[in-house]
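@channel sequence for tomorrow's demo:
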Amino acid sequence: MAAPTNTVTTLDNPGQREDLEDVIYRITPEETPFLNAIGNKKVKARLHDWQTRTLAAPDETNARLEGDDVGTLDAPNLTTRVGVLCQIWDKSGGTSGTTEAVDLAGRASELDEQKMLKGIELRRDIEKRFIGNYASNDESSPTPRRTAGALAWLETNTNRGSGGTDGGWNTGGVVDAAGNGTPRTFLESQVKDVMATAFTNGARLKMAFMGATHKQQFSAFAGIADIRVNAPARGQATILAAADVYRSDFGDVQIVPHAYGLTRDALFIDPDYWSKGTLRRMSSYALAKTGDNERFQMIEENCLICENELGGAVISDLA
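structure tokens (generated this afternoon):
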């Protein structure tokens, strides 16, 4: 039946208050697992340099005659000087004076909220470049200088699809990006290949980063442990459909899924050989007031330091 005539209902009552929750829900991925895993260093110039050194290959024929004199000296173990350029990152925002004066739901100040969100976005920008296949370049107006990503540094412990090419350090602060090859299926044999190659070259890989699709494929490898945990006396068994640690012939590797940084590569690293080099820490500055508003800019300047590219490996061109 219909409501009696002149019954006041919510359909025509203009005096109702809105029911707006005092909470804002955010679900965008915010994690920066690569940045969290590597070290931090202070750098002092726009171009940061360091040195690497290798030993001669073991020589099982090394032997001398008794009383023999030294003739030609062995080749010296000279260093190789490498470097990378720092990149300037920024985010900006602003609010009107009225926005700061009104009663807002879920936050006390829209300006402070925007600063917090832009800080998260800036850190995600750094994470995506640091973990990716991005070349470095010096500044040449209108092109800003950029630092290189981890996948671009790797040129030794690599497993690539047909036609794929290595990148690597070139000269000065320039690192070349790797070239894409033909996409192929992710296989456990590829993991075993880069783990063995890296071990032979002196690396001890401890972490592996990959996108969601390849993390699921990895968890289905035949070599992964049993998929069930023994059921308690009263209760159901737990099914394990994931691999968090891969126990290889050369040590355990922590498997880390990455939500937004990797789509066709699996990156393996020893975190001890990677660092974020900070020239300027993240800071927020108020911009000049030009009217009835408040504006800000956030700045950070840094680079990805690959102390020795042998401390990483990549399986690339994954479908």
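heads up for whoever presents: The first strand starts at residue 39 and ends at 42.
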